[in-house]
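Q: I'm writing up a methods section and want to include an example of the input and output format. Could you take the sequence below and give the corresponding predicted C-alpha coordinates, formatted cleanly so I can copy it straight into the document?
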Amino acid sequence: MRQRMMEAQLRRPAALAPYVALARPATSEGWPLRFETADDGADDGVRQIELGLDRVVIYRRVAGVAMKAARPLDAYRGLAVALLDPEGDDDGVVLVLVHEDPALSVTLYSAPHIDDVVAEWRGWSAALGRPMLVTLADGSHQPAYAMVGRLVIGEMRARRARRGALKHRRPSVYRRRGAGRTGELTVHRGERELSARD
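A: Here is the clean output for your methods example:
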Protein backbone atom coordinates (compact mmCIF):
# COMPACT_ATOMS: atom_id res chain seq x y z
CA MET A 1 0.00 0.00 0.00
CA ARG A 2 2.72 2.43 0.99
CA GLN A 3 4.72 1.58 -2.14
CA ARG A 4 1.67 2.27 -4.35
CA MET A 5 1.13 5.63 -2.66
CA MET A 6 4.74 6.62 -3.23
CA GLU A 7 4.53 5.52 -6.87
CA ALA A 8 1.40 7.61 -7.35
CA GLN A 9 3.17 10.61 -5.88
CA LEU A 10 6.16 10.01 -8.13
CA ARG A 11 3.94 9.99 -11.24
CA ARG A 12 2.40 13.35 -10.34
CA PRO A 13 4.41 16.30 -11.70
CA ALA A 14 5.17 18.86 -9.04
CA ALA A 15 6.01 22.54 -9.28
CA LEU A 16 9.04 22.93 -7.03
CA ALA A 17 10.08 26.18 -5.40
CA PRO A 18 13.44 27.57 -6.56
CA TYR A 19 14.81 27.41 -2.98
CA VAL A 20 14.47 24.76 -0.27
CA ALA A 21 13.55 25.62 3.32
CA LEU A 22 12.54 22.56 5.32
CA ALA A 23 11.18 22.92 8.84
CA ARG A 24 13.02 20.77 11.37
CA PRO A 25 10.67 18.85 13.67
CA ALA A 26 10.84 19.97 17.28
CA THR A 27 9.90 16.53 18.65
CA SER A 28 10.60 12.95 17.66
CA GLU A 29 6.99 12.53 16.47
CA GLY A 30 7.69 14.85 13.50
CA TRP A 31 10.16 12.41 11.96
CA PRO A 32 10.57 11.15 9.28
CA LEU A 33 10.30 14.19 7.01
CA ARG A 34 8.84 13.60 3.54
CA PHE A 35 9.51 16.11 0.76
CA GLU A 36 10.24 16.47 -2.96
CA THR A 37 13.39 17.78 -4.59
CA ALA A 38 14.50 18.32 -8.16
CA ASP A 39 16.24 15.40 -9.87
CA ASP A 40 17.51 15.83 -13.43
CA GLY A 41 17.94 12.06 -13.87
CA ALA A 42 14.34 11.19 -12.96
CA ASP A 43 11.57 10.87 -15.55
CA ASP A 44 9.54 13.85 -14.35
CA GLY A 45 12.48 15.73 -12.82
CA VAL A 46 11.39 15.05 -9.23
CA ARG A 47 12.35 12.61 -6.51
CA GLN A 48 10.75 11.89 -3.13
CA ILE A 49 12.91 11.96 0.01
CA GLU A 50 12.06 10.37 3.34
CA LEU A 51 14.51 11.68 5.94
CA GLY A 52 14.52 10.00 9.33
CA LEU A 53 16.78 10.12 12.37
CA ASP A 54 18.32 6.77 11.40
CA ARG A 55 18.02 6.50 7.60
CA VAL A 56 17.38 8.28 4.31
CA VAL A 57 15.10 6.78 1.66
CA ILE A 58 15.03 8.16 -1.90
CA TYR A 59 12.20 7.31 -4.32
CA ARG A 60 12.48 8.13 -8.03
CA ARG A 61 11.32 6.88 -11.40
CA VAL A 62 13.87 6.36 -14.18
CA ALA A 63 12.85 5.08 -17.65
CA GLY A 64 9.45 4.12 -16.26
CA VAL A 65 10.91 2.00 -13.45
CA ALA A 66 10.22 2.99 -9.83
CA MET A 67 13.41 2.94 -7.75
CA LYS A 68 14.00 3.05 -4.02
CA ALA A 69 17.39 3.69 -2.40
CA ALA A 70 17.58 3.37 1.39
CA ARG A 71 20.76 4.31 3.23
CA PRO A 72 21.53 4.55 6.95
CA LEU A 73 22.13 8.09 8.17
CA ASP A 74 25.62 7.03 9.31
CA ALA A 75 26.54 6.51 5.64
CA TYR A 76 26.30 10.28 5.13
CA ARG A 77 29.51 12.22 5.85
CA GLY A 78 27.85 15.32 7.25
CA LEU A 79 26.17 18.63 6.43
CA ALA A 80 28.12 20.75 3.98
CA VAL A 81 27.52 24.39 3.21
CA ALA A 82 28.49 25.69 -0.23
CA LEU A 83 27.81 28.51 -2.67
CA LEU A 84 25.18 27.85 -5.33
CA ASP A 85 27.35 29.51 -7.97
CA PRO A 86 31.02 29.45 -6.84
CA GLU A 87 32.34 31.22 -9.98
CA GLY A 88 29.53 33.78 -10.30
CA ASP A 89 28.44 36.86 -8.39
CA ASP A 90 25.41 35.15 -6.87
CA ASP A 91 25.37 35.03 -3.05
CA GLY A 92 23.09 31.99 -2.92
CA VAL A 93 24.01 29.19 -0.52
CA VAL A 94 23.01 25.57 -0.18
CA LEU A 95 23.13 23.12 2.74
CA VAL A 96 23.57 19.50 1.64
CA LEU A 97 23.53 16.19 3.50
CA VAL A 98 26.62 14.77 1.78
CA HIS A 99 27.01 11.16 0.64
CA GLU A 100 30.04 9.66 -1.13
CA ASP A 101 27.75 9.07 -4.13
CA PRO A 102 26.58 12.56 -5.21
CA ALA A 103 23.32 11.08 -6.53
CA LEU A 104 22.37 10.19 -2.93
CA SER A 105 23.18 13.60 -1.43
CA VAL A 106 20.14 15.52 -0.19
CA THR A 107 19.63 19.30 -0.20
CA LEU A 108 18.05 20.45 3.08
CA TYR A 109 18.28 24.22 2.71
CA SER A 110 19.03 26.77 0.03
CA ALA A 111 18.57 30.52 -0.10
CA PRO A 112 19.55 33.51 -2.25
CA HIS A 113 21.50 35.05 0.65
CA ILE A 114 23.77 33.84 3.47
CA ASP A 115 21.80 35.41 6.34
CA ASP A 116 20.37 32.30 8.02
CA VAL A 117 22.68 29.60 6.72
CA VAL A 118 24.79 29.27 9.90
CA ALA A 119 21.71 28.82 12.10
CA GLU A 120 20.30 26.23 9.69
CA TRP A 121 23.68 24.50 9.46
CA ARG A 122 24.00 24.17 13.24
CA GLY A 123 20.35 23.20 13.68
CA TRP A 124 20.42 20.39 11.11
CA SER A 125 23.78 19.16 12.41
CA ALA A 126 22.41 18.92 15.94
CA ALA A 127 19.10 17.36 14.83
CA LEU A 128 20.71 14.65 12.67
CA GLY A 129 23.89 14.15 14.70
CA ARG A 130 26.14 14.60 11.67
CA PRO A 131 29.24 16.85 11.57
CA MET A 132 29.37 20.29 9.97
CA LEU A 133 31.44 20.31 6.77
CA VAL A 134 32.90 23.10 4.64
CA THR A 135 33.04 22.77 0.86
CA LEU A 136 36.48 23.64 -0.53
CA ALA A 137 37.21 25.23 -3.93
CA ASP A 138 37.93 21.83 -5.52
CA GLY A 139 34.55 20.46 -4.36
CA SER A 140 35.92 18.30 -1.54
CA HIS A 141 34.67 18.58 2.04
CA GLN A 142 36.44 18.97 5.33
CA PRO A 143 35.11 19.33 8.90
CA ALA A 144 34.38 22.89 9.98
CA TYR A 145 35.93 22.15 13.39
CA ALA A 146 38.65 19.76 14.52
CA MET A 147 36.95 16.55 15.62
CA VAL A 148 37.67 13.18 17.18
CA GLY A 149 34.80 10.94 16.10
CA ARG A 150 31.67 12.96 16.87
CA LEU A 151 33.37 15.14 19.49
CA VAL A 152 34.45 18.66 18.59
CA ILE A 153 37.90 19.57 19.91
CA GLY A 154 37.98 23.03 21.45
CA GLU A 155 40.90 25.27 22.25
CA MET A 156 42.83 24.49 25.40
CA ARG A 157 42.50 27.25 27.96
CA ALA A 158 45.18 28.15 30.47
CA ARG A 159 44.31 27.83 34.14
CA ARG A 160 42.94 30.96 35.65
CA ALA A 161 45.47 32.83 37.75
CA ARG A 162 44.51 33.23 41.41
CA ARG A 163 44.90 36.94 41.83
CA GLY A 164 41.78 37.77 43.79
CA ALA A 165 41.51 39.43 47.20
CA LEU A 166 40.90 36.05 48.80
CA LYS A 167 44.03 34.44 47.36
CA HIS A 168 45.75 34.02 50.74
CA ARG A 169 42.63 33.06 52.67
CA ARG A 170 42.86 29.83 54.60
CA PRO A 171 40.98 27.07 52.78
CA SER A 172 37.61 26.27 54.27
CA VAL A 173 38.50 22.60 54.59
CA TYR A 174 40.70 23.47 57.59
CA ARG A 175 37.92 25.38 59.32
CA ARG A 176 35.68 22.39 59.56
CA ARG A 177 34.94 21.14 63.02
CA GLY A 178 36.72 17.99 64.04
CA ALA A 179 34.87 14.87 65.07
CA GLY A 180 34.03 14.50 68.77
CA ARG A 181 35.76 12.02 71.06
CA THR A 182 34.28 8.60 71.23
CA GLY A 183 34.01 6.50 74.38
CA GLU A 184 32.70 7.18 77.88
CA LEU A 185 32.71 10.60 79.48
CA THR A 186 34.79 11.21 82.60
CA VAL A 187 32.62 11.56 85.72
CA HIS A 188 34.13 13.14 88.86
CA ARG A 189 32.34 11.91 92.02
CA GLY A 190 32.83 13.06 95.54
CA GLU A 191 34.44 16.32 94.63
CA ARG A 192 33.37 19.63 96.12
CA GLU A 193 31.85 22.05 93.73
CA LEU A 194 33.22 25.53 93.73
CA SER A 195 30.89 28.35 92.88
CA ALA A 196 31.20 32.09 93.10
CA ARG A 197 28.83 33.79 95.53
CA ASP A 198 28.09 37.47 95.91
